[in-house]
Amino acid sequence: MAQTINTCASSVTQTSLSEPGCLSRADSAILAVAVNETRYKPQHFINRELSWLEFNQRVLDEAMTPENPLLERLKFFCIVSSNLDEFFEVRVAGIKQQIESDVVTRSVDGLTSTEIFRAITKRVRRLVRDQYDCWRRQLVPDLRANGFRFLEVDELDAGDRKWLEKYYASEVLPVLTPLAIDPAHPFPQLLNRSLNLIVKVAAQPGDRGAHRLAVVQVPRSLPRLVRLPRQDGRQDYVFLGRVIGHFLKELFPGTKILGHWLFRVTRNSELYIDEEEVANLLAAVENELQRRRRGDAVRLEVERNCPTEVRTDLLQRLHLTEEDLYIIDGPLNPVRLMMLCEGDHSPELRFPPFLASVAVSLRQKPDLFEAIRERDILLHHPYESFESVLNFLQQAAQDPHVLAIKQTLYRTGGDTRIIGALMEAVKNGKQVTAVVELRARFDEANNIQWARQMEESGVHVVYGLVGYKIHAKATLVVRRDEDQIRRYVHLGTGNYNPATARLYTDVGLLTCQPEFGEDVTSLFNLLTGICQFRPMQRLLVAPFDLHQRLTALIEREISHAAAGFPARIVAKMNSLVDRAMIESLYRASQGGVRIDLIVRGICCLRPGVKGVSDNITVRSIVGRFLEHSRIFYFESACQPEVFLGSADWMPRNFFRRIETVFPIEDGNLRERVVAELLALPLADNTRARSLQTDGTYHLLSPPRPSQARHSQDEFIARARNGVPTPGRSRRAKRKYPEVKLARRPF
User: Fold this and answer.
1) Do 193 and 265 touch, CB atoms closer than 8 A?
2) How far is CA 108 from CA 139, 228, 327, in A?
């Protein structure tokens, strides 16, 4: 199977580019030569890692924005730490491995691995400094002013100390294990991202040296914030690490404790599996998950007052250098502060509640299959409820006329309604297939658990393809209607995860157009069987033809601009990294094509370079919801084409994943995508940040307060007021006018 896919991916014929909306075979061949001959300099690109760190800075900026509610600012603060953890676990770990290898190369922006490591170390230190300045100077005072206090044990009165002593004796002490460090007790293999105390104990008679060291692991099973009992609604907390440090004498009786300091280790957490050598991918992933917990250390974090000699000792034992050390003036694991946001307290410190309603096109239509037969349906989450997708699955599972269900699962979040619907469908006699991606990063264990349950219930579970992650988002339902057997399809830009569907902006399409049904059937046959890839009628599929066909669409805009026709590209995505695609956009800019990019995270394209990217703008929106949808617009000489999909413009998405991109063919839906889903983010002048030529981002501001536009707030307002899609009432148009910029709605 792997050989079949590799052969197909490398030998897609030019005929595939001759599908509707693409170039002819001859034109594509000419343009392919031009692509190969074009060269751009390293300074025309932004380093991937530094671009990612700038995204994290934008997240931190939201934590420092007073206009955001306090607990929402705290969430952004926590997200910064969570993002940095993953960055070190995967990206920094990979760079360190490259440095240790014998291969010396330069990145697209001209840096060696060592130069990249030094650059990101410098940038991370500045980011961490700003993060903890935000904690000490903004968040802690504001939280205290709103009834949230973080106290030291020495600050407690007698009653609180007595309560804390009982809590420690009953809840904490039984699960603690002191680990001595000496010739008989080597330095322990500490878990990734575990919080620990390094304890300095005075030497005993007969010991060599003036002191000994020991480690105490802070239990992961206990909350990191111990809430003190209060009757007046105040929320007073003591950090668990401080509690353990205060009572250390009970762990080391008969000794003199000279000091204790918190520290935290981050380890390489990438999975390394040679799929050609394993017979059972499920077992291999399980084994590798265990190894991930004890991967090589890549970062050491210690609290600010830890002595130099203790820090040096820890670095040596973890085989790290001073470059890997981060001195923290605040909580070492801020992610655990998210517990402050749990519960229904303090609504005034949160974003106003928003509960997505059913899409206007589906209201009063309980039979989803009938609704889909009437016309294609576009769903914009989280502004329109994801419950419609769940209902689609549940109706399919219960409908006696449904014969088969097939679905890809990347990150489900373990939601019982999705998995339960598939298992219920089996009980109801339907053929059910689930293509589960076991290697969805940091969701592997969860996916393994659900895969086994589905297998036990009779679902046919397939674990993807050797060498490729299954990142496509697709569901196929085969139903015997009164007139014929019909295939109903759901395609999306986001995961089948109801939890993230309330937090991520994504788009989904429900359709029963025969061409889509045939294409999705072919996709599942490719994922589960043995067959050659053939260009599809509607779908663009990675790693086979997605890169070539998107490139052809860009090149077509160049040819239209040269001929004097309107030429325009608007693309919304999470990340833009692929060099060939960036060079295609540079050529389009040089050819007179106007290009607007909405890139939430990494962007290696450098806009505004004279003679290279003058006609390109890049903006990023970080707000209440995570911008996650991928939308691609091509003017096509006043006959616009719009595509949605699961793929960012990165090498991994184009060449190492199974991805799908699909067109929006219904004219009304296409106009909605253009006039709302693209135009509103392009009009945002409140939360949008513009990428500058030097790689920094500038927060946009309205010319005057009355002209402020906040795209996410406008989407919420439209959803709350039930504003229909194009073809709306005059009243709705007056209240929510379309964005009009230049000729088109953007």
Assistant:
1) yes
2) 39, 53, 32
SS3 407: strand
Give the separation between CA 587 and CA 581, rounded to whole angstroms: 10
Measure the CA–CA gap between 654 and 550, rounded to whole angstroms.
10
Query: Which token pair is 434?
Result: 């689930």
* 8 Å CB contact between 266 and 96: no
Q: How far apart, in whole angstroms, are the C-alpha atoms of residue 132 and residue 369?
A: 53
What's the CA gap between 603 and 606, in Å, rounded? 8
pLDDT of the residue at 14: 31
Q: Which CATH architecture has domain 360-528?
A: 2-Layer Sandwich (3.30)
pLDDT at res. 446: 64
CA distance 616 to 591: 12
Distance CA 237, CA 481 (A): 60
Distance CA 622, CA 410 (A): 24
- Residues 300, 318: Cα–Cα separation, whole Å: 8
Say if residue 543 is preceded by a cis peptide, omega within 30 of 0.
Answer: yes
Point out which residues pair with 480 in neighbouring strands.
485
- Report how far residue 96's alpha carbon sits from residue 601's, in angstroms, rounded to the nearest whole number: 23
> C-alpha angle with apex 335: 334 to 336, nearest 5 degrees?
90
> Is 471 one of the annotated active-site residues of the chain?
yes
What phi, psi does 444 have (nearest 5°)?
-60, -50
Are the folds of 49-146 and 157-350 the same?
A: no
| Non-local CB neighbours of 249 within 8 Å, separated by 6+ positions | 255, 257
Question: CATH for 49-146?
Answer: 1.20.58.310
Domain ranges for the chain: 2-37+540-735, 49-146, 157-350, 360-528
pLDDT in tens, 579-600: 999 999 999 999 999 999 999 9
pLDDT at 269: 82
Fold for 157-350, please state it: polyphosphate kinase like (3.30.1840)
CB within 8 A of 707, min separation 6: which ones?
A: 685
Cβ-Cβ contacts under 8 Å for 101 (sequence gap 6 or more): none
DSSP code for 192: T
What average pLDDT is seen over the chain? 87
Mapping DSSP onto H, E and C, the string for 501-524 reads HHCEEEEEEEECCHHHHHHHHHHH
- Identify the H or E element spanning 113: helix 113-134
399 in Cβ contact with 426 (< 8 Å):
no
Question: What do you get for the CA distance between the two ends of the chain, in Å?
Answer: 44
pLDDT of residue 208: 59
Residue-level length of the chain: 746
Query: What does pTM read for this prediction?
Result: 0.87
280: Cα separation from own chain's centroid: 28
User: Domain spanning 2-37+540-735: which superfamily?
Assistant: Endonuclease Chain A (3.30.870.10)
Place of tokens 């001209």: 110
**Residues 728, 733, 739, 745, CA torsion sign:** positive
Phi, psi (deg, nearest 5) at residue 737: -65, 150
DSSP β-ladder status, 225-227 and 504-511: unpaired
State how beta strands 325-328 and 257-267 pair.
Answer: unpaired
Cβ within 8 Å of residue 274, ≥6 positions away = none
pLDDT tens sequence across 120-138: 999 999 999 999 999 999 9
Indicate which residue of 44, 471, 628, 710 is catalytic: 471
Q: Which amino acid is at 356?
A: A
Q: Specify which of 35-49, 201-215, 288-302 reaches the highest per-range mean pLDDT.
A: 35-49
Torsion of CA 529, 531, 535, 539, to 10 degrees: 0
Distance, in Å, from the CA atom of 76 to the CA atom of 81, rounded to the nearest integer, reads: 9
Nearest C-alpha neighbor of 239 from the set 362, 336, 97, 377: 336
**510 close to 392: Cβ distance less than 8 angstroms:** yes
